Each structure stands twice: as structure tokens, then as C-alpha cells.
Amino acid sequence: MLKVGIIEYLNTIPVYYGFLKGSVKADNVEFVEDVPSELNELLREGFLDISVISSYEYLSNSDKYLLFPDFSISAKRKVLSVLFLSTVPIHQLHRKDVWLTRSSMTSRELLKYLLKNVYGVEPNYYYYSLKDNDLPKNPTALLTIGDDAFKLLKNKRFTFIYDLAEEWFNIHGLPFVFAVWAVRREVYESRPEEVEAFYRKLLVSREEGIANLKDICQSYSKKLCINCENCMEYLENLRFNLGNDEKQSLELFAQSIGVPSKLEFIEV
């Protein structure tokens, strides 16, 4: 049985839609749900066989993984759910306190790159988890992702809102790749038919999800306290494939953070 990591953030629902609705059968698959940073660790340590993982995790440990062709969570301009919220303009944050969510490696590294190399500021970084309730009551600035971003965006203290995908696009003119789907190399080498069968099912699941974005928004918008129109805008901004622009962007991000940029895929 394959152990497969999933995140029930809104931005992954279109990919897993077929499985969640039961129209795509998950035979010989055990799904394990967790936040992105935990799935990174579980796949890295061999407790999972396949998972959606942060692009930073893949690039940092590409010797351990093979990518699923044409799968990612990317955004060409605004992503709307990876936000840097600040009470002061971004260029005034030098040596100020900045709080980074523990839930995402990619977003943290992207923000550090932008602050240092684009805005020329080096803040004092601290880490928080809303689940652990360890965020200060009045932070100067914070990075938030996923469903939490929709909730924190309602806090009127944060006058300055920066969308990290839009920041990247304004510099490089490319979509930013936040997450990819990967399998551990030894799992694919020992069980290629199982992995390829799951990959094909994931393709069908994603196809059904993209065709049913309205249904997804009707089901999930209430949970996030956003209306269906905003939900649709969000999902339609995302890309779930890994085309040439996304590959180029991944390689550029790898160069930006100083890690190897060779992308390797399963054969299907």
C-alpha cells in the first residue's frame, strides 16, 4: 500500500477532488493529512511514499525524490493565499520583528530572498504556528499562507499587504511554484507500476476538480468565511500543472537560494 501525503487546504482540493468525492477509487492507497512543513519531513524521512511537498523541499533534497510530471501549485501573478502582512511599509522593516509561519518552507525562503535581495532589509525573524497559538497579539509583520491567510487578512491592523507570487512575477515575469508532487526515488524504483497507476488516477482526479471549481467553492467557502466569488477568483488564479514557465521558475528559484536546479521526473 502506498502512503500518500495530502493537505486539505483549499488550493489542493482541485487536485484531490476525485478522491475526496469518491469518483476516483484510492485502492491500495493510505492518505495521510498534515500541514505542508510536516508532509515535507514525513516524505524526507521515509514515512510517506508520495506527497505534495514544498518546492523548496524538493530543490533542497532532490537526490531523494522524483517529480510527478505536470503537477504543481503555482500562481502566475497574485496567489492570494501567500501573503506578507505588515503594519509598516516593507522597506522600513530592517531590524524589525518579522514572524514567519512554521507551516511553509517555500514561502519563508521566498520572503527572505525578497526582503534581503529586493528590498535590502534584514529583519529579526521569529516563528509561529496558529495551531500552537504562539503568535504575539500585535506583531509588526507576519507571513501567512493557505487558509490561515484568508482569516488573518481580515485583521485591519495590517495596512500593507504583499502577495509573494506577485512580488516574484514583478521581478522575473514568471509564475511562482509553491508546491510539487514527488515520490521517493527508492519507492519508484521498487514499485514503479503502483506509482504510475496512482499518478494516472491523480490526473483524473485533477481533471474532475478543475471541471468542478464551482462545487468546490460552494463546499469550502463557508469554512473559510469567504464568498463563492472570491473563492473562484482565488482558484482561477492558480495553476495546477508544471509547464515550461513553471520549470524555468523553479530553476531560477533554486539559483536564488543556492541549491542544485536539476529537475527529474518519473517516466510515464
TrEMBL record:
Protein name in UniProt: Chorismate dehydratase
Function statement: Catalyzes the dehydration of chorismate into 3-[(1-carboxyvinyl)oxy]benzoate, a step in the biosynthesis of menaquinone (MK, vitamin K2).
One Pfam match: VitK2_biosynth
Pathway noted in the entry: Quinol/quinone metabolism; menaquinone biosynthesis
InterPro entries the UniProt entry points to: Menaquinone_biosynth, MqnA
Designated gene of the protein: mqnA
UniProt-listed Gene3D superfamilies: Periplasmic binding protein-like II (3.40.190.10)
Taxonomic path: Bacteria, Pseudomonadati, Aquificota, Aquificia, Desulfurobacteriales
EC number: 4.2.1.151
Reaction(s) catalysed (UniProt annotation): chorismate = 3-[(1-carboxyvinyl)-oxy]benzoate + H2O
Family label: Belongs to the MqnA/MqnD family. MqnA subfamily.
CDD domains: PBP2_Sco4506
Root EC class: lyase
